[in-house]
């Protein structure tokens, strides 16, 4: 997502900016020509020792950049949206795996009126910033104040584009409070859609007749960086000098290379031309052969966590619309298929040759961090039996129901082979395609089940999945919480009866649907529990609900829980930069560049000072994370105390740190965010600064008539 950078003086704690504002109408949008605000912020530090370091570069094996139109609602806008998280910010960031919420543009939020109302209090003193060439070719500096008006404009467009399934109305109670009223209560939607949606400036998005076709030639956001220049193959982003988190970010410039292939991305990483990667697996090829061989002391890669924790929810779905016959529609048959799979071999063959790169999936269908947080131990223990490799046990189950292997093929009791089935995937998705092939081979080798894997283009694959035009498919689903995993994987289209009960819309199952790919019709209890989960903020009640849902899944086994796709799956180097979330100290799951909320890690990354040891690097990472979260939650008035800056000073003794280890230190946090975060306080103002403010006031009075033309 990202040349000349403005240098900042570490000793300057307060920035006083006098601003004369004029607004010109250009192509239907407002163009502020200069800025004005008295800001109270801590300038980010500079590190002279890093002047010779390579520009911090991010790469992913993805697509080209949308240089002619940066509209976040535009067609294909999210094809490669890594850059969005560096420019735009949501009301809150959510941890991808745990669902933990971190207040960003929102200071805090509370619920009222039986959870119909979510009242969000906004932070003050934040601006949308841009410095560069505008659509008309003029050079501008923009600082649009962030207020409730931006939130209203954002969701007006968002609902127009994506729909408003819970009949949410958005109103402002003054410039710094927004009330979201849901006609139908759904707390996860409030948390993980409303709070995590990027907030956009109303000057650009407030009056769009067609949000999806509007042209936004320049992205303007509140985030830590702003766009400096871009081509389809590379973009540069510079540090936002008016960024509202004191002292952050530490890196003055980011380069983003959206490589067109995994091989190209790994080449950049191996040459030291990229410091952060979000590049996919190439099957069994280990990181040591992809890029870490070039500098094994400082280059590292993660495929899940070394102890088997993590993974992105991914399952082998059975399409019950097509395989609606015996024995596919029997739980015992699916259980036999499950225990016939060697999950360790599948992980090695699909995720960098790592035995736990693709963690085994239990019948809760939840990654272990989520499972441990929400599901009771007895259900977890029962659910774990489905991923125990036991070919003889699988054959015994099949034989007890009359199935047998004849001439190498699994056959009905009368000796007729079971019909061959196909599994679709796309060979360009090297990890999920490799997993699909390995599953098919194991089922054929161990049970005689005839499964062939067919590669289809991604567009056709997703269309076939939604329309039910497949037999089997191994693919991914949502994260954040059990609510979303179970929603996307197992909740069919619903309809509401006159008595208010939601039931499966059986008719809709015959058409195109976007959840429940297997077209499983769950027990009514499962649907009722899911509805209840959407209506409560009570963590104890949620644990009971999700445990009950997991118990149903363990009993019915509607899909085959094979292995999770590797997550986190990313690459990094620590020769020149530190602060990454790694096995040495793993503090956030938002580590891949394509994950929304990756700013939680980016804001901690800093140039590595000469002489920093491995233990010092870990100590800095812990301190940087704790200082950042303390500021976000309002318990500290700065994210960058002098004690943290001292850790980034060069030391006299140079010690080469060893390669990354698999020791994991995970910072466990509660899943329910605080709702009464006090506003952060600010450092005092010196006499000299007071004098400067007097001058500013005189200037502001002189131009008050012009300022009045502005939007606020």
UniProtKB/TrEMBL annotation:
The keyword Transmembrane helix applies. Pfam families: SBP_bac_5. Residues 662-674 have a biased composition (Low complexity). The keyword DNA-binding does not apply. The chain crosses the membrane at residues 690-709. GO terms for molecular function: peptide transmembrane transporter activity. Residues 649-683 are annotated as: Disordered. Residues 101-482 form the Solute-binding protein family domain. One of its GO terms (biological process) is peptide transport. Keywords: Membrane, Signal, Transmembrane, Transmembrane helix, Transport. PANTHER family: OLIGOPEPTIDE-BINDING PROTEIN APPA, PERIPLASMIC BINDING COMPONENT OF ABC TRANSPORTER. Belongs to the bacterial solute-binding protein 5 family. This is Solute-binding protein family 5 domain-containing protein. It comes from Sulfodiicoccus acidiphilus.
